[in-house]
């Protein structure tokens, strides 16, 4: 069966996952993470995307990104990967692929689910390896753009930071975290109605379709 085209909707957040090849580490230390952040900054300056959050655990990348047009996300990730993989291979004396295939992404509905996706990414690694500090009173990240749901957490920076700290401490419900990850790895939408939204690429389905042939209507 032919692979479906990538689902990308402009103006919607996308929960992105890219895993290391064969489960290998793609971030050995802080230097590798700094190189990836530099690649993010460079690509964000060239492509019309908003980076809401990033997390760099050892074996994968997690991002929450909103592209302004349907092809911007792919161009952005290609630019990031070209720059980072070249730097990683030079530093570690290796060659060849670093990633386990192409990146995976789920379109995320705005509102509470987008806020949970933000918390999920910020809680996916140690604080120094995520954008969590950006929203908790730490150093501001030059490329991180807070989504509307974060601004709605309070009227002052202190209120927003306190509310977000509580959300991180509570964590995302396991069922929600698993749903978002399944959607990303499968390339589907999360929290969007299949009947109320239409993909930009000619009607690509937003959710998995039932297996087998459709049932015939009874006369």
Could you please describe the fold and organization of this structure?
The chain is α+β, with helices and mostly antiparallel strands. The protein has one domain: 2-Layer Sandwich (Alpha-Beta Plaits), CATH 3.30.70.1290. It is built from 6 helices and 5 strands; from the N terminus they run βαββαβααααβ. Helix 1 runs antiparallel to helix 2.
For the residues shown, what is the average pLDDT?
89
The radius of gyration is 18 Å
Determine the CATH topology.
Alpha-Beta Plaits
Strand order of the largest sheet: 2-3-1-4-5
Biggest sheet descriptor: 5 strands, mixed
* CATH homology-level superfamily: Transposase IS200-like
- In the CATH hierarchy, what is the class? Alpha Beta
Helical content stands at 25-40%
Q: What pattern of helices and strands is seen along the backbone?
A: EHEEHEHHHHE
- The end-to-end distance, rounded to whole angstroms, is 31 Å
Q: Which structural class fits the helix and strand makeup?
A: alpha+beta
| Count of helical regions | 6
Provide the β-strand percentage band: 5-15%
The assigned CATH architecture is: 2-Layer Sandwich
Low-confidence stretches: none
Overall morphology:
globular
| Number of E-type strands | 5
Number of domains: 1
Characterize this entry briefly.
This protein has helices at 30-46, 72-92, 112-122, 148-151, 157-170, 174-186; strands spanning 13-19, 49-55, 60-67, 104-108, 189-190.
